[in-house]
Protein backbone atom coordinates (compact mmCIF):
# COMPACT_ATOMS: atom_id res chain seq x y z
CA UNK A 1 0.00 0.00 0.00
CA UNK A 2 2.78 2.38 0.95
CA UNK A 3 4.72 1.76 -2.31
CA UNK A 4 1.52 2.16 -4.37
CA UNK A 5 0.83 5.50 -2.70
CA UNK A 6 4.43 6.64 -3.38
CA UNK A 7 4.10 5.57 -7.02
CA UNK A 8 0.84 7.51 -7.41
CA UNK A 9 2.36 10.60 -5.80
CA UNK A 10 5.47 10.34 -8.00
CA UNK A 11 3.36 10.01 -11.15
CA UNK A 12 1.25 12.98 -10.07
CA UNK A 13 4.37 15.07 -9.50
CA UNK A 14 5.74 14.11 -12.93
CA UNK A 15 2.41 15.10 -14.51
CA UNK A 16 2.45 18.50 -12.78
CA UNK A 17 6.06 19.17 -13.82
CA UNK A 18 5.28 18.13 -17.40
CA UNK A 19 2.24 20.45 -17.53
CA UNK A 20 4.31 23.37 -16.20
CA UNK A 21 7.12 22.74 -18.67
CA UNK A 22 4.65 22.60 -21.55
CA UNK A 23 3.07 25.88 -20.44
CA UNK A 24 6.36 27.78 -20.45
CA UNK A 25 8.12 25.83 -23.20
CA UNK A 26 8.06 26.43 -26.92
CA UNK A 27 4.90 24.44 -27.64
CA UNK A 28 3.41 26.16 -30.67
CA UNK A 29 -0.11 25.67 -29.31
CA UNK A 30 0.57 27.69 -26.16
CA UNK A 31 3.07 30.24 -27.50
CA UNK A 32 2.98 30.49 -31.30
CA UNK A 33 6.01 31.98 -32.95
CA UNK A 34 5.61 35.15 -34.98
CA UNK A 35 7.85 36.29 -37.80
CA UNK A 36 9.12 39.81 -37.16
CA UNK A 37 10.40 42.03 -39.97
CA UNK A 38 12.34 44.92 -38.40
CA UNK A 39 13.25 47.80 -40.69
CA UNK A 40 15.36 50.81 -39.70
CA UNK A 41 15.99 53.88 -41.85
CA UNK A 42 18.08 56.99 -41.94
CA UNK A 43 17.09 59.73 -44.35
CA UNK A 44 19.08 62.04 -46.63
CA UNK A 45 19.94 65.47 -45.28
CA UNK A 46 18.22 66.92 -48.35
CA UNK A 47 14.88 65.38 -47.32
CA UNK A 48 12.57 67.74 -45.46
CA UNK A 49 10.59 66.85 -42.36
CA UNK A 50 7.52 66.71 -44.62
CA UNK A 51 9.31 64.26 -46.94
CA UNK A 52 10.22 62.00 -44.02
CA UNK A 53 6.69 62.23 -42.62
CA UNK A 54 5.36 61.24 -46.05
CA UNK A 55 7.51 58.09 -45.95
CA UNK A 56 6.35 57.30 -42.41
CA UNK A 57 2.71 57.83 -43.35
CA UNK A 58 3.08 55.58 -46.41
CA UNK A 59 4.61 52.82 -44.26
CA UNK A 60 1.88 53.21 -41.62
CA UNK A 61 -0.75 52.71 -44.35
CA UNK A 62 0.61 49.29 -45.38
CA UNK A 63 -1.29 47.21 -42.78
CA UNK A 64 -4.58 48.49 -44.20
CA UNK A 65 -3.49 47.40 -47.67
CA UNK A 66 -1.74 44.08 -47.02
CA UNK A 67 -3.79 41.50 -45.15
CA UNK A 68 -0.84 39.27 -44.22
CA UNK A 69 0.46 41.91 -41.78
CA UNK A 70 -0.59 40.57 -38.37
CA UNK A 71 0.75 43.50 -36.34
CA UNK A 72 2.64 46.73 -36.91
CA UNK A 73 4.40 49.34 -34.82
CA UNK A 74 6.87 52.10 -35.44
CA UNK A 75 8.79 54.86 -33.74
CA UNK A 76 11.63 57.30 -33.91
CA UNK A 77 14.94 56.65 -32.16
CA UNK A 78 15.24 58.19 -28.71
CA UNK A 79 18.03 56.06 -27.27
CA UNK A 80 20.52 57.99 -25.12
CA UNK A 81 23.28 55.47 -25.93
CA UNK A 82 24.20 57.00 -29.29
CA UNK A 83 24.60 53.60 -30.94
CA UNK A 84 21.99 54.01 -33.69
CA UNK A 85 24.63 54.66 -36.41
CA UNK A 86 22.48 57.41 -37.93
CA UNK A 87 19.33 55.27 -38.11
CA UNK A 88 16.40 57.35 -36.94
CA UNK A 89 13.19 55.43 -37.65
CA UNK A 90 12.23 51.86 -36.81
CA UNK A 91 9.29 49.83 -38.11
CA UNK A 92 8.30 46.40 -36.86
CA UNK A 93 6.04 44.35 -39.13
CA UNK A 94 4.74 41.03 -37.77
CA UNK A 95 3.59 38.05 -39.82
CA UNK A 96 2.04 34.80 -38.66
CA UNK A 97 4.30 32.81 -40.96
CA UNK A 98 6.74 32.93 -43.85
CA UNK A 99 3.86 32.81 -46.33
CA UNK A 100 2.68 36.17 -44.96
CA UNK A 101 6.10 37.71 -45.52
CA UNK A 102 6.23 36.12 -48.98
CA UNK A 103 2.94 37.87 -49.80
CA UNK A 104 4.13 41.20 -48.35
CA UNK A 105 7.49 41.64 -50.08
CA UNK A 106 6.27 41.63 -53.72
CA UNK A 107 2.86 43.13 -52.89
CA UNK A 108 2.01 46.14 -55.10
CA UNK A 109 1.36 48.34 -52.04
CA UNK A 110 4.80 47.48 -50.62
CA UNK A 111 6.45 48.16 -53.98
CA UNK A 112 4.64 51.53 -54.18
CA UNK A 113 5.91 52.35 -50.67
CA UNK A 114 9.49 51.56 -51.73
CA UNK A 115 9.14 54.03 -54.60
CA UNK A 116 8.05 56.73 -52.13
CA UNK A 117 10.99 55.85 -49.88
CA UNK A 118 13.81 55.64 -52.47
CA UNK A 119 14.41 59.37 -53.09
CA UNK A 120 14.79 59.99 -49.35
CA UNK A 121 16.60 56.88 -48.13
CA UNK A 122 20.16 57.27 -46.90
CA UNK A 123 20.52 53.89 -45.22
CA UNK A 124 18.35 50.88 -44.40
CA UNK A 125 18.87 47.90 -42.14
CA UNK A 126 16.46 44.97 -42.21
CA UNK A 127 16.44 42.08 -39.75
CA UNK A 128 13.88 39.29 -39.77
CA UNK A 129 13.57 36.91 -36.83
CA UNK A 130 11.20 34.44 -35.21
CA UNK A 131 9.82 35.65 -31.90
CA UNK A 132 8.08 33.53 -29.31
Provide a short characterization of the protein structure.
The protein has 132 residues and is of the alpha+beta class.
Task: Describe the secondary-structure layout.
Blueprint: H1 2-24, E1 34-43, H2 49-65, E2 71-76, E3 89-95, H3 98-104, H4 108-117, E4 121-131
Antiparallel strand pairs: 1-3, 1-4, 2-3
InterPro entries: Dabb, Dimeric_a/b-barrel, HS1/DABB1-like
Keywords: Signal
Subunit structure: Homodimer.
Note down, in words, how this protein is organized.
This protein folds into two domains: 1-30; 34-131, Alpha-Beta Plaits. It has four helices and four strands; from the N terminus they run H-E-H-E-E-H-H-E. The protein has helices spanning 2-24, 49-65, 98-104, 108-117, and strands at residues 34-43, 71-76, 89-95, 121-131. It has a four-stranded antiparallel sheet. It is globular and about 40 Å long. Homodimer. Residues 1-22 form the signal peptide.
